[in-house]
């Protein structure tokens, strides 16, 4: 028998990622159905790629967060709208109101610390990377790639943390 795992012809990773992202939409949809009030102590930290296709945030936030941004839905948010592939929400940044549109595919993390629940995702689109910058000559990952050592990008890892209480 071989110790090597054969390549799957079924895209399990993509299917699981899509299903877990649907959890985020379902949870946010429950909040909208309940009148956009978060029950009990629930609140959400949502991290997303700011340059992902379909993300719409003010230019100042894009400049301040060129790769990822985390928003908190807790006390002061408004106009939460949930669609099949994205959500939008009104938030205030330095007392300036803004509407953010975030596709579920741009989300990299969803956490509800009130109940120790968290989901972590891989980026789904290759062109979500922030604008290119000059690479330093002493970058170890780049050195390894030049030497023919493949880089482990973790693309087949799905993390689900239900936060067991100790």
Let me know the number of strands: 8
Overall 3D shape: globular
* Helix fraction by DSSP (H/I, runs of at least 4): 10-25%
The tally of domains stands at 1
Strand sequence of the main sheet, in spatial order? 2-1-6-7-8
Q: What is the distance, rounded to the nearest whole angstrom, between the alpha carbons of the first and last residues? A: 41 Å
List the helices and strands and how they pair.
Layout: H1 12-33, E1 44-49, H2 59-64, E2 68-73, E3 78-82, E4 86-93, E5 96-103, E6 107-112, E7 117-120, H3 140-146, E8 159-161
Antiparallel strand pairs: 1-2, 1-6, 3-4, 4-5, 6-7, 7-8
What does this structure look like?
The protein is of the alpha+beta class. The protein has a single domain (12-131, 138-161), classed as Roll (SH3 type barrels). The chain is built from three helices and eight strands, in the order αβαββββββαβ. It has helices spanning 12-33, 59-64, 140-146; strands spanning 44-49, 68-73, 78-82, 86-93, 96-103, 107-112, 117-120, 159-161. The strands form two sheets. It has a five-stranded antiparallel β-sheet with strand order 2-1-6-7-8, covered by helices on one side. The chain has a three-stranded antiparallel β-sheet with strand order 3-4-5, with helices on one face. The termini are far apart.
Name some characteristics of this structure.
5-stranded antiparallel β-sheet, 3-stranded antiparallel β-sheet, alpha+beta, 166 residues, 8 strands, 28% strand, globular, SH3 type barrels
